[in-house]
């Protein structure tokens, strides 16, 4: 069976992306299968740049096709923050809860009309013979005053997608995978993956 490496140790991302790739007919591996690959510096100033850094590093190290994402929550009233620093908003090794707490503090005085935000996901696919391809998915919505829901991960409990009355953390994975930023980016890259792996 052909193999695809997801350039992450994040089990939540692996679960979500693997579900989106279930009909591709490939074995999906995470970086947990390659302990020799150490931390990959995400020092680009853009989501796309970080995704490319990770996909290229994993592709070079494994010799296998690699898929990487970098995702940011961009709050309009915070001038796009936390953006590229979303996963480390509250510090280099911050937990999901710590990042959410910092966001809640930063937005505590904002009324509903100033809570617009978007999740943006950049995906990079690197494979022998085709070089690299990048796509983007955007999910628009707003930030709630308090977290709701126990599913999902990251900022999902405080992000209410536009047109919905449930946060991403209150949705089951099948619904989330029809509208999330990562799902929309995967929809863009799936034709490229299908062509490569056919």
Chart the SSEs and their pairings:
Blueprint: E1 3-6, H1 11-20, E2 27-29, H2 47-62, E3 66-75, H3 96-106, E4 116-127, E5 131-143, E6 159-161, H4 173-179, H5 181-197
Parallel strand pairs: 1-2, 1-3
Antiparallel strand pairs: 3-4, 4-5, 5-6
Helix pairs in contact: 4-5
Describe the overall structure.
By secondary structure, the protein is of the alpha/beta class. Helix content is 31%, strand content 23%. The protein has a six-stranded mixed β-sheet with strand order 2-1-3-4-5-6. Helix 1 (11-20) links the parallel strand 1 (3-6) and strand 2. Helix 4 packs across helix 5 (181-197). The longest helix is centred in the C-terminal third of the chain and has 17 residues, at 181-197. The N and C termini lie close together (12 Å). The model has no long low-confidence stretch (mean pLDDT 93).
